[in-house]
Amino acid sequence: MALNPEWLPKRLQALGWTHTVYLRGTPLTDGAAVAIVGARAASQAAMDRAHALARHLAGSGVHVVSGGALGVDGAAHRGALAGGGRTTVVLGSGLDVPYPARHAPLFCEVLARGGTLAGMLPDGTPPQRSTFPQRNTLIAALADVVIVVEADVRSGSQSTVAAARGFGRVVAAWPGSAGCDRLLAAGAAIVESEGDAERALAGTPRVRGAAAIDPIAQQVRDAIAGGARGIDEIVRKTGLTVRAVLRALPMIERML
Predict the structure, then answer these.
(1) Using CA atoms, how far apart are residues 60 and 154, in angstroms rounded to an integer?
(2) DSSP H helical ranges for the chain
């Protein structure tokens, strides 16, 4: 099923999303959502972390989003299922072309357990190098927080992070890998436990060497830095409500 823009979740509508989204399974909703992503050739420790984070969050009613890949992505989806929650697999292929093929049983289980397959490509489209950045953009758009569990500096997760920052999402990383350590040095929130993930989702992320910055206030500050002038223009640039912008302004004054 292809979703028209007016049928999309509000978090996508707020971004001015115009791309077609293809869907199988349970319709996308606007509840709290966290994307858990990372390396395909992940260490066992990283996959255990992704599984534990997803299981805890899903058990608390948080929707877990990932890309269905080997390594961290697969561990996150399995963790969400183990926690009794819903998970969305965002594919870089047509929804009838499971990739990787060995995860076809996992995708079937996701659907059977009330989850969703989503993507931006029509049925019959094979995965290509160019389709995965599109997939990563949709992953970031569907989440409130993007957590990178393990990554190399050239990891595909970096495109998910770039999209997340462009959308004003919270970006977090687990220390210990080259890509994640670089993200942390650039200001990403630290996640080393389920509690850290919950804090990031609640808008009070733990940031190394600085006070936590409210993500909505960060969106407003970025809009102002980008040239927005006046409440109406900030609302147009961010997709936030007038009330949210007004609440964020005093926080921005304290940041200055």
Answers:
(1) 33
(2) 10-13, 44-59, 72-82, 104-112, 131-141, 157-166, 178-185, 194-201, 215-225, 231-238, 242-255
Q: Which domain holds residue 41?
A: 2-201
Q: 77 and 107 in one domain?
A: yes
Q: Could you tell me the two tokens for 78?
A: 């399995």
Pair 107, 131 in one domain: yes
Cα–Cα distance measured from residue 171 to residue 143, given in angstroms and rounded to the nearest whole number: 10
Name residue 147's beta-bridge partners: 36, 172
Among residues 104, 20, 122, 26, the alpha carbon closest in space to that of 65 is found at: 26
Task: List Cβ neighbours of 155 (8 Å cut-off, separation of 6 or more).
Answer: 38, 39, 148, 179
108 falls within a domain: yes
SS3 29: coil
Residue 210 lies in a domain: no
Q: Which of 201, 228, 244 is the last residue of a domain?
A: 201
Q: What is the pLDDT along the chain (256 residues), one digit of tens a residue?
A: 665 555 688 889 889 898 899 999 998 888 999 999 999 999 999 999 999 999 999 999 999 999 999 999 999 999 999 999 999 999 999 999 999 999 999 999 999 999 999 999 999 999 998 899 999 999 999 999 999 999 998 888 999 999 999 999 999 999 999 999 999 988 899 999 999 999 999 988 988 754 445 677 778 877 887 778 888 888 888 888 887 888 777 766 554 4
Q: Is residue 168 assigned to a domain?
A: yes
Put residue 124 in one of left, alpha, beta given phi > 0 → left and psi -120 to 50 → alpha.
Answer: left
- Whether 209 is in a domain gets the answer no
Same domain (yes/no): 223, 170: no
**Which residue among 178, 201, 224 closes a domain?**
201
